[in-house]
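Q: How would the C-alpha cells look for this protein?
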Amino acid sequence: MLSLTRRSALLLVALATLAAACGQSREVAEPIEETVTTLADGLEETTPTTEAIVVADAGGDDEVAIRVTYTDGEVGEILTGPIEDVYEANVASAALLELNQGVPLPPTYATEMANQLLLIEILRHEIDARGGSVADTEVDEARTDLLAQLAGFYGTQEEADAAAAELDEFLSVLVDTRAHQLAFERLLAEDLDPATDGVPCVRHILVTTEDEANAILDRLADGEDFAALAIELSTGPSGPAGGELGCADSASYVPEFMVAVDEAELNTPVGPVQTQFGFHVLEVTDYELQAAGVAQDTYFAVIDSIEVEITNPDRYGRWDPSFGEIIPPGQ
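A: Here is the predicted structure in C-alpha cell form.
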C-alpha cells in the first residue's frame, strides 16, 4: 500500500486543480461556490491565511532554486527564473482565477510551481538514465487530454480556446509534465514481463455443485466456448459478460480463488475451485501491466535515494523526503 502522505509523487498538483475545476461546468457554479464557502468556513480556524504567510523575494533569474543530486552522481538544477515565470503568469491570469472558482492563488503557489518543475526534472533524469526520450506522440496525447479537460469547463469552444491561449505558459508546464510521465511509464513497461510483473486477467463460471463444474470442464475440453458457457450457466454477476472479472491483483480474490489464479497456466481452464460462493471454473486469459502503478512505485524508490537542496527556503519551502515534495514556508 502506497503512503497517502506522499501526495505529490506522480500526482500533478496543478493538473489536479485544473481537472477538478474542469470537471464542473459553469452552469453549476453556484453549488460549487457554496461548497467552497462551506469548506473555507470549516478550515478557517486551522488553515493559515494568505496574509499570515510571509515569503522571501525570489532572487535573480539565474540563481539556482533547487539542486537535485542523484545516486549516479549527476546533479540537476532548476533556476529561479522558470519557476517565477510560470508563477507570475498564473497569478495574473483571469482564466486561472475563474478555474480556481474565484479564489486567488496564495504566495505559496510558488512552491507548487517549484514542485512541478522538480517532478519534470526527476522524470527527465530517469528517462535519460534508461536511454529514452519523450516522444512527440506523448506530447500530443498530453496536450489533447489537457485541452479536452479545459473545453469541458467552458460553454463554447471559443471560450475554451481563449482560455487556452491565456494559460499557454501554465498549460505548457502541465503538458511537459504529463508527457514525461507517459514516457517514463512506457520505458518501464518495455523492461517488464507481463507474465511476472503484470496482474492476471481472469474469467470464471460459477455453479452450485462440483458435478456441474466438472461437466463444464468436459464441455470446454470438447471445444465449447468459455464465454458462451458462462452466459449460459454461470450464477455469478459476471455471467452475462462472459464471466469476465477484469485484470486485478490476485490478492483481491478470496484465498482459494487467489491460489488457483496464481497457479493457473495461461489460457488453460482450472477447476473445480470451491469457495464460499460455490464451485468455479476459471481461466487466466492474459497478464496486464499496470504501467502507472509500476511508475509510481519506481518513482517512490527514486525520491528515497535522491538529495534535494532548496537554496531559498524562505521563498519555496523545505524538501520533505517523507512527503516526497517541497513543503511551503511556514508549514
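The chain is about 50% helix and 15% strand.

The longest helix spans residues 168-190.

Upvote if useful.
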